[in-house]
UniProtKB/TrEMBL annotation, chains A, B:
InterPro entries: FAD-bd_OxRdtase, FAD/NAD-bd_sf, FAD/NAD-binding_dom, FAD/NAD-linked_Rdtase_dimer_sf, Pyr_nucl-diS_OxRdtase_dimer
Name of the featured protein: Flavoprotein oxidoreductase
Family: Belongs to the class-III pyridine nucleotide-disulfide oxidoreductase family.
Record keywords, A-Z: FAD, Flavoprotein, Oxidoreductase, Redox-active center
Keyword rRNA-binding attached: no
Cofactor(s) needed for function: FAD
Highest taxon of source: Bacteria
Location of the Pyridine nucleotide-disulphide oxidoreductase dimerisation domain: 332-440
Occurrences of domain FAD/NAD(P)-binding (ranges): 6-298
Pfam families named in the record: Pyr_redox_2, Pyr_redox_dim
Gene Ontology molecular-function annotations: oxidoreductase activity
Length: 459, 459
């Protein structure tokens, strides 16, 4: 593929991973990245920590500057350039230069769609009022930061109690705002099973955050000098700042208009080589769905980890390689004040609802234990809650969840690795894991849970 | 196996795991545990931390008291009882009561040998002088503790720079002793590859510990009022206390005298059901060798983790079950002052020496990276060194080592799980592991290392 032209739409994790990989493998290739925003390759996951003051400058979130991408990696990065159409027959894209509004056609040999995702806009009047924000791009973060610095708001209402909502609750508390989280569903962190969230929710409230679950926002109104968040269940909540953190949606419009196959999730369908239904077009990142290793069907779980890996696989294949993206588990970890919560694979609820483990989910087993994260006699040992979800027929591990103040983060990855290898709870119980009193037990808490689960296998 | 008599020799991790398992599965069974010492089921790994003052009482190290084992679990525990012979034909053991020196015969239906290991006694004159200690049992720990409290020694010399030697160096420093570690081999932590130990050794020295590697102790002498440790390479080292931490040897004498098959390692041979060459005799814990999942032959690596699991498997099988012990990786983690180091599988040195990966070890590949343990912009991010050892033919992971001040402990278990599943470095690079800036990177450092390793696979 030397001397060919590779066009990449989107300069974030997936797009830049692919661009870098192509340039490394095929230095002769012309790689053009069109990015409609100002920044490429920044740590979106770090934005709440800059806003909250843990990280001292937004510049520290930049992984790769435009200048470095051009000079050091030889990638033809063009910011403020928006691709507005793909013509798969002529193999060209229409690009609008956001500076002067002019457009041009750019031919490609191979194309990568890495358009990411955008904040979901729930059907609530008032989303465009001043003081109402979403947080997806670095520009969004800068807007929030500037508002905090210039307006000194006292009261923040966050709509949505997922990862971003809770990370931002902490950020706002770090800046000494009064914080209220409104979640439509019956619990915060809705992608965890309920019993994994109880202590965490109590902890969040102890940190001075008011939580309203099962509460639907019907409108955001101007209420000079501030805003009013109107709910059905919790009345009207006064706010100086409102963050809408109700999830994201895949940016699949370009692909859809180009006639590419879309998945049932609404995201772009790709094969295990990250190729779309058009052999000259690849896609990666938050705009695509991935094969889920437990559900054994495609799922849309937008995470930076998958975007990086998917982009790398796409880039390797666009460079003439034969790389395969094996699939996802939706493994995620989030800091919630002093707690850490983590999940991999499917929750018990999701396993039952999937219909994959008995029509009524009757083969879904689960075990929950709480144990010290390290030797009980070690100073500062903290309770660690572990849940494993498994198939009761053969004991295969389907999912894991962890919550606690210590020892959560890399333990979830033991479970993720075990699920990938299709291990059973019996296998996990017999893994030769590390032990020393400052860190664990002779049986790791994950194994203690696996051994409890074992009693319910084959019965 | 109801109403039968199960005799267990040794009341520590393996013996008590088996006893508890048998009683749970077969409540009618008479389970007798003969323990020659005073204590059962204590956390030997916690002893350095009691001696150093991190743990405030030796009572906190007791996992299960004799009284609780008898009353709550119905195990017939007999301390101060030493089994001095096994008669496999008559199926009985000869037991000496250490109190009055009398002996008796105890018949068994099934026997478990869980005699553990004893400190190696290097051929050094003076090992029996007052002030010279080993650390294996709680009684040893109590002797050291008492000596520290009553004699207030100022200078400790530790012979041996392995796990115990370094944990005790920290304990003695915590008590403000001057500490010197003498290691015969060219490096401390000899079961790590050299480059993984350099920073750790420097750190130990920064903590005020003098290290003499490549130094052989030829004698320990009385040098009133203290002791003198005589070396060839480092002269004579004055000491008020000497700890001999030169490893342990399996207690296989009873098994050998009973004619049981011994392994090439010198430990007791068992099959994957923890059964010895006699169908009525099982063995588990530090006295047995285990199947090594990477070397694919038996190895002797005495660790509490394997003792617990092996004991449990033996107990389940003695109770009529069909449990299998899959094998070991020698996974271990140790705190060395502010550092944590961890290992699983084989080191590069061991892989080369094994002859299993090319006669000259020519198929052994390795990759080493250093990266922040969490997002580089996160306050307190610490360098983390990761090494993966792999088979260059197919990329299969053979071993992993980690060293750093943070993020080591459970990360090694990702590698251990991957090795157990016979994953390649390519597989590891594509694992769906967790990420958030306070904890990791979009590619975990283990994956960054795996992706570096990948360049050397199949070439």
């Amino acid at each position: 593929m030397s001397s060919s032209t590779m066009v990449i739409i989107g300069g974030d994790a997936a797009g830049m991973s692919a661009a870098s990989k192509i340039r490394r493998e095929c230095p002769d290739t012309h790689v053009i990245v069109f990015e409609k925003g100002e920044h490429i390759s920044y740590s979106a996951c770090g934005m709440p920590y800059w806003i909250g003051g843990v990280v001292d400058s937004d510049r520290r979130l930049l992984v790769l500057t435009v200048d470095a991408a051009r000079k050091r990696r030889g990638i033809d990065v063009r910011t403020h350039h928006e691709v507005v159409a793909i013509d798969p027959v002529r193999r060209e894209v229409t690009v609008r230069q956001l500076g002067d509004g002019t457009s041009f056609q750019q031919p490609y040999d191979l194309l990568l769609i890495a358009t990411g995702a955008s904040p979901a806009r729930p059907p609530i009047p008032g989303l465009d009022l001043p003081g109402v924000f979403t947080l997806r791009s670095l520009s969004h973060a800068q807007q929030i930061y500037h508002f905090l610095e210039s307006r000194q708001p006292r009261r923040a209402v966050i709509i949505g109690g997922g990862y971003i909502g809770l990370e931002m609750a902490e950020a706002f508390r770090d800046r000494e705002l009064e914080v209220t989280v409104v979640e439509m569903l019956p619990q915060i962190l809705p992608n965890f099973d309920p019993e994994m969230v109880e202590e965490v929710a109590a902890h969040v409230q102890q940190q001075g955050v008011t939580i309203h679950t099962g509460t639907r926002v019907t409108a955001i109104q101007q209420d000079n000098p501030g805003l009013a968040v109107v709910t059905e269940e919790a009345g009207t909540l006064p706010a100086d700042l409102v963050l809408v953190a109700t999830g994201v949606r895949p940016n699949g419009e370009l692909a859809r208009q180009a006639g590419l196959r879309m998945g049932q999730t609404g995201a772009i369908w790709v094969d295990d080589h990250m190729r779309t239904s058009d052999e000259h077009i690849y896609a990666a990142g938050d705009c695509v769905e991935h094969y889920h290793l437990v559900l054994e069907e495609n799922a849309w779980i937008p995470l930076a980890t998958s975007a990086n890996k998917g982009g790398r696989v796409a880039g390797e294949n666009m460079a003439g390689g034969d790389a395969r993206f094996p699939g996802i588990l939706g493994t995620a970890v989030v800091k919630v004040f002093d707690y850490t919560v983590a999940v991999t694979g499917v929750t018990e609820q999701a396993a039952r609802a999937s219909g994959k483990f008995g029509e009524q989910g009757e083969w879904v087993g689960s075990a929950v234990i709480t144990n010290d994260d390290k030797a009980g006699y070690w100073p500062g040992a903290e309770p660690l809650k572990v849940k494993l979800v498994f198939d009761r027929r053969d004991g295969r591990v389907l999912g894991g969840q962890l919550a606690g103040k210590a020892g959560v983060n890399k333990r979830i990855d033991i479970v993720a690795t075990a699920i990938t290898a299709r291990m059973t709870v019996a296998d996990v119980g017999m893994l030769d894991l590390s032990y020393a009193p400052p860190y664990s037990h002779p049986y790791d808490p994950v194994q203690i849970c696996a051994n409890v689960a074992l009693r319910d296998v084959g019965r």
